[in-house]
Fold each of these.
Amino acid sequence: MKRLSDRFAHAARSCASLDELRDLIGTVVPELGFDYFALVDHSSLSSPSGAFVRLDNYPQSWVEELTLAGLAGADPVHLASRRCNKGFGWRELEELIPLERRHKDILERSRAHGLGPGFTIPANVPGEPSASCSFAVASGGRLPADRLDCAELVGAHALAAARRLRPPGPRPEPPHLSRRELDCLRLVALGKTDWEIARILGLSTETVRQYVKRARAAYDAVSRAQLVAFGLRDCWISFQETIPPSGGMVSSR
């Protein structure tokens, strides 16, 4: 199996297009003991934008139902992928996310279209779309347990090749934020209200409100949550800075 993953890695690095990569994955799927594959940016099923990757050989009837019925956003496999950094079998989903009725319905519908047990390799790269590479057997089949380690390596190499072949579009230059606007942004990311930020920074509530308002205007952000998302994207703040420290108030920088 190691020879298979090494051979795939070399071939994936040589792919010159996403079509070549799709064909390559298709040739290795039977060797791994699977019938189906899907390498997707999760947004590709709900957005018409050509900026997202979607390579798969899933039953077309299932893909159409998933997209036309607007079920993609509730796909439990994609939701679980956002919480993992290693491969997982679909039988583990209930251990990874709370499975609601709608999630179970999606799994049941996928089986009705011919998809059996599956195995998914997630890709959560900061600044890039959440993605995953899944392999599945046909309904009634069993996961090839002795080949899952190899499947995880193949999936990781496939995802890396997809990122290379379809890199993120050019990112606009971030707007300039003043030191105080950045101070307020960091505290907004911690969930602080304008009044709390004012207490921490020694400013008036109205002054803080204006700093936050100017920061939102710079990004044309419609909410504080969207402002924080832009701040994370442009690295003004880190994910760690959005987690309140245990005990005590946040101090000014």
Amino acid sequence: MAGRYELLELIGRGGMSSVWKADDRLLDRTVAIKVLHEQFTTDEEYVERFRREARSVAQLSHPNIVTVIDRGEEEGRQYIVFEYVEGDNLKQVLERRGPLPVRDALIFALQMARALGFAHERGLIHRDVKPQNVLLNDDGQAKMTDFGIARAVDVDGMTITGTVLGTSEYIAPEQARGQQVDAVTDVYSLGVVLYELLTGSVPFHGENFVAVALRHVNEPAPSVLELRPDCPARVGLLIERAMAKRPEQRFRSMDELCQELQACLAELDPVSEEATLIARPAASPPARRRESRQRRRRGGILWPVAALVVILAVAALAALGAMALRDDGGGGSAATNTPIKLTGIGAYDPPPGDNEEHDAEAPQATDGDASTAWSTEEYRSGLSSLKDGVGLVLDARRDAEPSTITVSSTTPGFTAEIRTGNSASGPFDDEVSDAMTVRERTTFELTDADSRYFVVWITEVPPGTRASITEVTAS
């Protein structure tokens, strides 16, 4: 296309357009290209809507919004070129894993709210907020896409008489009635998305678009707190307010919704930097972190220059005393036993494995409940006879440097080690602990474990058994 883009693979198809993974030969990069279906090329309504999407999103440079790179026309076919986001959309994650941990759901909702608030400040209402329109990149960041029916704030929700745009499962009551939409219309839809992230299901179902839309207009949504008992009451009230039938009863803006989401996160995890998702300080350069660790391992004490002129015997005795303090945990080290929050996000099962190993159970290994667990498959002839290993992937949500990771299990006897990687999807090639036989509670001592992503890499399971991990903690 355009003498520049080579279409490689069809990765999505909707009622209006198809999306292709493509190679940008001019800049040697992978991109995504949305192409308007051929049957709409002579329909000015659809062509103009497609062009409007390109113009609208081109204004939006935000870390949680997919970037528009180019647009054009090829043999009468309209196309838009976007940045390529490698990863699933939020709907696919829900279908694979089921309801998300409360904290993860709030973080995704906050990222979406920030993106939508940014668009609202520039006069654009999305009007089709749903998990399918949220892509997740390798870092687990949400990126809003598909502003195909976005309209300016002062434009009615109906594009032509009798036609209402949007997706019925997430549609606001005023949008379903064909009335004017504004920022709080997207607030309602985002409330529905958060409801689904927490419960695994949308609040209203029906046989067709009209049946579902009417339920949004007339019926109160089932209580999130009844379907998700571990959900804090404040989060339940947030969703109830966001999904109020009357627009004036909702949050007045996305900024106001963001503030309440941040408050919910802070109450849920008050000691975490991520609880409020405020800007984090820049990470220390790896070389300096390694230098700092080396100083701690040597005793963590910088001797005054004057001590060097003291007789050699006294200096040697002082050094030995410092080493003894370090070895006995007597305070010579700067290390502290601070908990590091880890979240189970999936399994790592590279070839010859099938790329999944009870992924939906992964959050149960970090939920604080010893009665729930993530487990491997049962290996009748032992794990090592089939593949190199399989692992539980853990996300610290930021760069962290744990000195220990503790694994609890109800199936002791399997062999594991801790590894790190640069991506949630692997590879995990950096071994940061020795291999150990896991007992009911086993602590792995880590070395050079500077990473965001960790994996409990299981290399052997006794024949006819499986490995089960009930809890993983780090400090």
